[in-house]
Amino acid sequence: MSWTIQSLLQWTETFFKKQSIPSPRSDAEVLLSTVLGMKRVDLYVSFDRPIHAGELAQFKPLVQRRAKHEPVQYITGCQEFWSLNFKVNESVLIPRPETECVVEQALRIFKDRINEDIRILDMGCGSGVLSVVLAKEFSSARVVAVDISQAALNVAISNAKQHGVYERIDFLESDLFSKMPKDLRFDLIVSNPPYMRSDQMKTLERQVREYEPREALEAGELGLDVHFNILKSAPFFLQKKGALIMEIAPDQGQPLNDHLTKQKIFSNMEVIKDYERRERIIVIQYG
């Protein structure tokens, strides 16, 4: 059988539907455009283009991997964030669009200091998307990117080099603040910590549950173990009038507010909603 772009997309979409793949058509398009070196939109103006044997041989194993619910981003090795392409693999959580809200809040709070040499800490940096984007947006900033996983840091280092900000980011393998030099102080700390409750893990989509790193997802009975640990140490590493911005799950704003109220060491706290109007970001200012 001879294949064209159109017929191969149709076959792959049908096959993915039978495997209960959540987005069968778009996934088929992403994988085929990757093999052909084309933009997805260009597939539609080239529907009659024949698929050569070598291209089909490259495409088949990608389809087989996706049929096992491996995330498309791990198969292609990249994910877009803040309109930039980032390298990802199974060592790191796949960046989600809602995490861009962390960047937006940083730009809002420090809008008058865009060109100053502020100091930023990215706690649990994963693939490094926050470190890289903030280093690009704050052109004179110095960033420290921390992760417990050296494999994740290797991905972050690669992304920093790719986007030309490697010289302004220091990478540290550490379990949160445990190896952080005690004399460091930051204007801004950002984090997208794990926030899934332990009892939620089995309810996650198969592609998340089976492939993304569990340590980047699960955070105890309330899903707040890492948040609480960050909140415990962050004040000691912030400059006066510094800010802490963390991503949260939609049901975690109130328990975090209660926790902070008991601490009585912050000057202001906000819970920010994401693009779908769900509580997603907590912004805490100290001093």
For CATH, the homologous superfamily of the largest domain is named as: Vaccinia Virus protein VP39
Count of discrete domains: 2
The helix content, as a percent range, equals 25-40%
Provide the succession of SSEs: HHHHHEEHEHEHEEHHEHEE
Describe this structure in words.
By secondary structure, the chain is α/β, with parallel strands linked by helices. It has two domains: 5-68; 90-285, Vaccinia Virus protein VP39 (Rossmann fold, 3-Layer(aba) Sandwich), CATH 3.40.50.150. It is 37% helix and 18% strand. The chain is built from eleven helices and nine strands. The strands form two sheets. A seven-stranded mixed sheet has the order 5-4-3-6-7-9-8, with helices on one face. A two-stranded antiparallel ribbon has the order 1-2. Helix 1 (5-18) packs across helix 2 (24-36), helix 2 runs antiparallel to helix 4 and helix 6 (100-109) packs parallel to helix 7. The longest helix is centred in the first third of the chain and has 15 residues, at 53-67. The chain is elongated and about 70 Å long. The model has no long low-confidence stretch (mean pLDDT 95).
Strands, helices and their partners?
Blueprint (H helix, E strand, L loop, with lengths): L4 H14 L5 H13 L3 H4 L9 H15 L4 H5 L1 E4 L2 E4 L12 H10 L9 E5 L5 H9 L4 E6 L2 H13 L6 E5 L12 E6 L14 H4 L15 H9 L4 E10 L5 H11 L4 E6 L5 E7 L2
Parallel strand pairs: 3-4, 3-6, 4-5, 6-7
Antiparallel strand pairs: 1-2, 7-9, 8-9
Give a quick rundown of the structure.
This protein is an alpha/beta fold and 287 residues long. Helix content is 37%, strand content 18%. It has two domains: 5-68; 90-285, Rossmann fold (3-Layer(aba) Sandwich).
